[in-house]
Every structure is written in structure tokens, then in C-alpha cells.
Amino acid sequence: MYVQDKKGKSILWVDKSRKDDVGLDEFEGEDPMKINNADSFFDSHEKHNFKVDADFILKNKEKTDEKIGGHDKVLEKSMKVLEGYTEQIALHLVVEKEQLITQKKMQEVLEKMNEKL
């Protein structure tokens, strides 16, 4: 069996004259490092009973994207609430400043009244 690239060049083949560590025909190819990566690729899939495929990944990515989108909406609402608090605090500070001015004026009036007594 040969696997060829788009130009028809063989890049992977089965060498029936050699066996791997479990007695299967051995893969051969033009780049030994890529062939060694194939072993880890299949080992990883075997570890997960071949359940992790493109459909699995895309389905879970969609779920993750939905959850992130939901969190984004919550954060947007929270920011609006916090902006409202900011406006309320700013208004409260204006009122406090006015009260302080009024209190100082009242104190001045009381001091003048006290002097006349």
C-alpha cells in the first residue's frame, strides 16, 4: 500500500518485509520523523478509543463558543450596572459637596448669632 502526495510521489508505504513491535507490517516513508509522529497520533487516538475526531472537536468547540458568548452577555450587563453605580456615586458626591457648603454656611450663621448673644 502506498500513500502519494498530490503530485503522485509516494510519501508513505507499508513494508511487508519488516514487522513493528506488535507484529504488524511496518510503515515506511520519505521522512522518518513524520512516520514516527504517526505512531504517536494513533497511540493518542487509541488512548481515547478513537472518540476524539474532527466532529467531536467541532461539537465541543461550538459548546465552548456558546458558553463564552453567554459569559460575554453577562459581562456586558454587569458593566452597564457598574456604569449606573458610577453615575450614582458621582451624583452622591455632588450632593455631599452641596451639603458641606450648606453646613459651613449654617455654622457661620450660628457663630455670628452666638457672638451677638
Structure description:
The chain is of the alpha+beta class and 117 residues long. It folds into two domains: 2-51, no CATH class; 53-117. Helices cover 68% and strands 15% of the residues. It has helices at 32-47, 54-116, and strands at residues 2-4, 10-19, 25-29. The protein has a three-stranded antiparallel sheet with strand order 1-2-3. The radius of gyration is 38 Å and the shape is rod-shaped. The termini are far apart. The mean pLDDT is 83.
Question: How are the SSEs ordered, and which strands pair?
Answer:
Layout lengths: L1 E3 L5 E10 L5 E5 L2 H16 L6 H63 L1
How would you state the average pLDDT, rounded? Answer: 83
Biggest sheet descriptor: 3 strands, antiparallel
Tertiary shape: rod-shaped
Helix content: 55-70%
Stretches where pLDDT is under 50 for at least 5 consecutive residues are none
Side-by-side strand order of the widest sheet: 1-2-3
Radius of gyration, rounded?
A: 38 Å
SSE order: EEEHH
The helix count comes to 2
Which structural class fits the helix and strand makeup?
alpha+beta
Q: Please tally the β strands and state the result.
A: 3
Distance between the termini: 116 Å
* The number of domains: 2
Estimate the strand proportion: 15-25%
